[in-house]
Specification:
The chain has about 260 residues and is mostly helical. The chain contains 10 helices and no strands.
Amino acid sequence: MIGIIYFVVIVLANTIGAVSGMGGGVLIKPIFDFIGADSVMAVSFYSAVAVFTMSAVSTARQLISGRKFNWKIISWVSLGAVLGGILGNVIFEAILRWFSNEDIIQLIQIGVTVITLIFAFLYTKYDWKNFRFTSVTWYLACGLSLGFLASLLGIGGGPINVALLMFLFSLPIKEATGYSICTIFFSQLSKLITIALSTGFARYNLEMLLYVIPAAVIGGLIGARLSNIFPPQKVTTIFQIVIIIVLFINLYNGIKIIM
């Protein structure tokens, strides 16, 4: 039964995540936490697999459809995302060792996620000033920050990806969503490789991946299709609505833990 619930959640979350550039994990993580069927560690792993699969499918689908990318931005941001993803997973594992109480770990993740959600919403809502950095250093620093947060929070990418790419490089939202999905692919790839080389996958219920991976593929395909259809204003609206929904889910989860 839990597998079926996870399947439905991932299809819907990854469809929205592929359209908005958030990656789906920003919905998957808090909803799985709300369901409460698995540990924080397991939820972060399932979310990472789902978002990694979605990003691979969505990126491939967009390339096949003829979408053009600036490969200089992708290569350097993605390199930074790989390094940040490794660092984020190392810090996450350290937090797991430091705090035996999973509630504290969840509160840390929720707190940082809420901060990124508020920044992303205010940025897109009030059209803050953009920068137009073009140096490799900024691309690398951006990817490092995004990969670190994605891996640490277990949300894949989240709204901070799109907002920061627009903020630093003056990218239109539809371009930013494409680059965000590519960045998510590399950050989650590095997270999964780090897990494989350190703790391994034996501590997870891998049978759940029979639900997670097909759902992620379906969501990625639908989301990539819709991303090519929707105009920029529609993407911005979806982006902001999802932020509000996820913000309330995270706040509810946080209050529930504290109470």
